[in-house]
Every structure is written in structure tokens, then in C-alpha cells.
Amino acid sequence: MLKLHRLAYSTLAIGLLAACSSTSSAIPEAPSTVGASYVQASSTKALQPGEKVANLFQLNMKTPYVLQRLTDRTYWYESGFYATIFYVGDQGVLLFDPLEQRAEPILESIRSVTDKPITAIVYSHDHADHLAATGPLLEMLKTTQSQAPEIIASQATAEKMQLLDSHLPRPTKVIPWPDGKFKFENLDVELHGFEHAAHTDDHAAWLLVNERVLHAPDLLNADQPPFWNFAGSERFTFLVDNLNTANALDWDYFNGGHGNVGSHADFAFHLKFISDLKAAVGKAMGEVPFGYGVDPDKINAHTVMLPTWYDEIAKRATDALRPTYGDYYGFETATPANAEMMAEYLYSYR
What we know:
Elements: H1 2-19, E1 37-39, E2 51-53, H2 56-62, E3 66-69, E4 74-79, E5 82-88, E6 93-96, H3 103-111, E7 118-122, H4 128-131, H5 134-141, E8 150-154, H6 155-163, E9 173-175, E10 181-184, E11 187-193, E12 204-208, E13 213-215, H7 228-232, H8 239-247, E14 253-255, H9 264-287, H10 305-325, H11 331-348
Parallel strand pairs: 1-2, 6-7, 7-8, 8-9, 13-14
Antiparallel strand pairs: 3-4, 4-5, 5-6, 10-11, 11-12, 12-13
Helix pairs in contact: 8-9, 9-10, 9-11, 10-11
């Protein structure tokens, strides 16, 4: 069911991109959660640490893709609200996560800055919305380069793909879990697998050491409050620990697979938001008695009681956070689901 949700979200994003007109929106973009300094997207001028791409929502809605240079060799790509990175070496290109339905624009963006072959692809984790363009991309590359890219993944991802009989192209190089590393030309890449992961069991952060770039899709959406179910996490339980682990690494630029280019300030914002949400949900749980909103004379199964209880708790917690966070990107649509997830966590672990 979770992967179906992701597929629907990805398809919706592409549909929105195709359907939007070229006229400018009358609604201003949401304010920055971290007081960011915004600059116009540029594939030639490197982003300074802490800067973010301006007008990103409208760019996602109305342009084929956004390409932003991060360093001399690393580039950030986003289209339809999905983002990834690639690194241009001396001989070839290292691409992370060929995003679903985006093989052609990703290749176009790479070709806009280099004609070097794509010699390696990295899978960050086994969720199809971040990997499903691999097959189409490999087919496209057959006409332009003599050798197929190496496909690199962690041991946890490779084993999960095997267990679930994944239809996606399998890794040709497997990195030891949880703290393996590999070298791409002169670039050191470190795997930092989460010992107990929130998003999915093979979730990890990939550090481009020399470039000071961290790639961890679905860990957080930079410059936004947490997305629905904390970026589609399969569980909330270990998220704070995962955020702290990634934040403690040595980097300047962060790609979370969605949202803007991230910084350590985005991690601080998310940790504060989660702390405030936990307090609001805990307070609501103390105020709302179990069975609230259910007429016992009108039911013949108890199963309605828990979701009704969570729903009321989420409404109250969302109301409590609205004065502080209500103007931020997606607050109204994402926070109730996050509050329900938090309520389940607090109810289960005491």
C-alpha cells in the first residue's frame, strides 16, 4: 500500500507539471522555515552553503526541471517535486537515484553540463519512486555509450531487492552495511546506514566526502515542515535518532529527495517541530478520552474507536501548532497525518 501511495504521488506530480499554465501564480510561495537566503537557480554558479533555490514551487510546477550547481563537480536536480544529485568526474558521471518517470529530463540535465558517460548509478534505498527510471535510462544510454553504468547499492538494499523479487535492475556492486565506502575516481563516498531506520529498513545517508554533500532521500524535506507521514516513513519510532545521526556528519549541502537544498538549519527546524508536535499530541492524548466521538449505541464493532480517537488528537495537535507553523509549506495537509503517527508512537511506547 505504501508503494502505491508513492506511485500515485509521483504520477500526480508529473500530471501537475504537465497541466499547469505558464502564467504566474497570484499566491506567494510559502515562507522559509529557516529564514533562508534565496538565489535564482543556476547550473553554472555554485550555491553557497545555506542558500536555497528561489521560487522552487513554481519552478516545479511550470518548468521541465531545475538544475542547480552545488560545487565545482556536484549538481542538484529537481522536477515534479523529486530531487537527486550527480557528480561529474574526470572520466564519467556518478548519478544517484534515477527518479521514477524522469529518465529523459535527468539525462538532458546531465548532458547540459557534460558529455561524459554515466559510469555509475547509486541506489539510496529500495523504494521504486526513487529508482524506477533506472531501466529506461539504461536503455537510452545503450545508444550513446559502449559500457553500461555500474549499479551500486548497500548490502541491505541488495538483499531487500532480492527478498522482494524487485523488478528493477539489480546492483552490480554491493557496499557493506552499515558503514561501507567506495571510491568513484577521486571522490570518496561513505555509506552511513541507520542502525534502526524510520523511513524503511535499508534507509541510509550517502556522504560525498570531498564535496561535502549528503544524500539521504526521504529523511526530511528541506525548507518545509515534515511531509505526510514524515516523508512517507514506514515508522516514526527511530526518526529523531536518524536525524541526529545524519546531522552529526560533516557536510555543507543536503539532498532529501524532495524540498529545497538543505542545510544543518533544516535539521534543527525539523527536530524542533517534532519536539513541539510531540508535546501537542501528548497534551491532546491527556485531554481526549478513549471512545471520544463514538456513540456506543450506533456501532457493532470496536474498531472505529482507535482511529476516531487518533483523529481527534491529531486535530487538536494541529490546531495547537498552527499559530507557530501554520503559514509554512504544506502544514495543513501534512500535519494531521504526522500527528496521528506521533500518537501511535506515544501510545505504543511508554
